[in-house]
Amino acid sequence: MEKLEILADAAKYDVSCSSSGSKRNNKDKGLGDSKGYGICHAFTEDGRCVSLLKILLTNHCIFDCAYCVSRKSNHVKRAAFTVEEVVDVTINFYRRNYIEGLFLSSGIFDSPDYTMERLVRIAKKLRIDHNFNGYIHLKAIPGASDELMKEAGLYADRLSVNVEMPTEQSLKLLAPEKKHIDVIKPMEYLKKEIIGYREEKSLNKKAPVFAPAGQSTQMVIGATKETDMEILGMADYFYQQMNMKRVYYSGYVPISNDGRLPMIGTPVPIIRENRLYQADWLIRFYGFKVNEIVGFDQPHLDLDIDPKLGWALRNLDQFPVDINTATLEMIKRIPGIGHQNAKKIVAARKFNRLLPEHLQKMGIAYNRAKYFLAVPHPFSIQKDFTSVQIKHQILSLQNSKYKSDFSSQLALF
Amino acid sequence: MIYDGTYQGWLTAIFDSYDHKLNEVCFLKEKTASIPLFATPHYVITDEIKATRVMKGLKQRLSAEGLKNLYNIYLSEEEKSEEMMWRFVKYVFECKDNIEQNFSNSAVWDVKKLAKKVKREAHRMEAFVRFKLTKDHLFYAIIEPDHNVLPLIEGHFKGRYADQRWLIYDARRKYGIYYDLETVTTVELEFKLGAGSAKAIAEICDEREEFFQELWRRYFSSVNIKARKNMRLHIQHMPKRYWKHLPEKMPEN
Ligand code: SF4
């Protein structure tokens, strides 16, 4: 039991948790399935979702990365699981409906290949011996051989190589033994394989799948000096060049007294992390370009308002928008109107002309959206507010609602 | 309209309302019926043919999703749900075209909203069912959802746990669904009080059951990052009313 505590504790700083993006049907009356959308089975007291059994195979590590609890020079209790133990716990947790599957990472003991080989063995055992169709996410160990990577992809739903540090300089500073290229190389390999297998699958239905949920990566935020522009630029590079499914941003939790790092007790940059996720979301689902959200004149995201509102305030000339005639793309850009609601508006306006009261009824944050809407009401006067005035009014609205904790909540508009 | 509380019964009631050209109706379930003053009671006799005809009419005018939403509202068991369904159905039959997307109409919107609430709870139950393993290899779980969601989650669990026998029991409505490795059946049974106590678990459960519960509890507390604690968010995602049946939220015994 203690082993599980140690190795779950060490794995918790990896924020990727999603179990979505892979559809694996239960076959031959086996155990489990993956639905393609994630199920969060529990939520920790810090409000994050627990959907996978997330553990390290071991926290013994031959490396000494400054930002990592498992680094060689850190004095922590060390432990390691056997292959059988991981399989047994996974199956028993899954059967009790505690989890959607396994997220397995590891410190590097001995050599990358030695470590990776064990990770692969666990996935293989689950799939073959136990006919397990739940979700499996393996950490690809940088430096492991291509053959092992390939095998991993055949059993896992997702593979990830964490860049951890957004830039080469930061990596050099905090993990002098590592090189950026060690991370980029396996990413490129995975990209190539994923695309290759997918093409084959489209020609031949019986072809095996390779990491069907794609690859993801994680960046630690706030341990080093990068701007949001650099971070989002890097993320964009991963999305565009590496076909990355997700980039995760992990606000640095101070865990050591190291002159190169923020002191212990420095607060976790939760709001900044939240803003990065919001910006990332805008880029992936709302058609925004990185340089619309951050630029050289403003390399950091606003902390007091979300990036969509920030963009709208900087581009007031694009407003007001008439929801009865505007394109879906433009409606999605109105603060207070999300993806789903934008689609509903476009569907509903076919029946009759939409008025403010309809929007309110549809659950749209009208008090926020109203500054950006062209209202067809004959009695309402369209006041010309400046962006400063609008921001002020929206903020006072927000504060009255969430006074106690201006919050780390992941508001996905 | 006094009906037997089944979906078929309700559909029959709709048929009767049209048949008798009634415009102002309210619905009561037989068991709970206390007839309001000044109302003329009409006793609905559930009739498959009538129900099917109403269903057919609805199918012609609604998408599969719209039809499902209506059923979800029925499962919501909320006080005004039947009236809500009635207003919606009336509007559906008034118009020739499909009106599901007309979100500026409150009959449409109310249905959508409540259906979503039921769907959300069903989804939560898919997440928060916690099985315990008994000595004779049955995985059983107890839940107490606000809405009657067992019919909605049956398929999910059947697909997922095809190789184990399981039972999910709704303690509020006193019935369960049971899978015997072949099919899922509805079972009515009375669970004894205290079925969840440590002693009861030790008696009926597999020898490793406690071990895995404890392991899960420990896992759950060790993945928490104290520096990021946010109880408001925690409770929003995992409402307190469900805690009773979640081992990770139970005090250690
Ligand atoms: S190699 Fe990985 S586990 Fe080892 S110290 Fe670096 S980050 Fe931590």
Question: Please, what is the average pLDDT of chain B?
Answer: 87
- What's the alpha carbon Rg of chain B, rounded to whole Å? 22 Å
Report the oligomer.
heterodimer
Shape summary of chain B: elongated
Largest sheet of chain B: 5 strands, mixed
Largest sheet of chain A: 6 strands, parallel
What's the helix-strand series of chain B? EHEHHHHEEHEEEHHH
- Class inferred from helices and paired strands of chain B: alpha/beta
Description:
The complex is a heterodimer of chains A (413) and B (253). The relative contact order of chain A is 0.08. In chain A, the strands form 3 sheets. A 6-stranded parallel sheet of chain A has the order 5-6-7-8-9-10. A two-stranded antiparallel ribbon of chain A has the order 1-2. Chain A is globular, with a radius of gyration of 24 Å. With 413 residues, chain A is α/β, with parallel strands linked by helices. Chain A is built from 15 helices and 10 strands. In chain A, α4 links the parallel β7 (135-139) and β8 (158-160). With 253 residues, chain B is α/β, with parallel strands linked by helices. A 5-stranded mixed sheet of chain B has the order 3-4-5-6-7, with helices on one face. Chain B has a two-stranded parallel ribbon with strand order 1-2. The termini of chain B are far apart. At the A-B interface, α1, β3, β4, α2 and α12 of A face α5, β3, α8 and α9 of B.
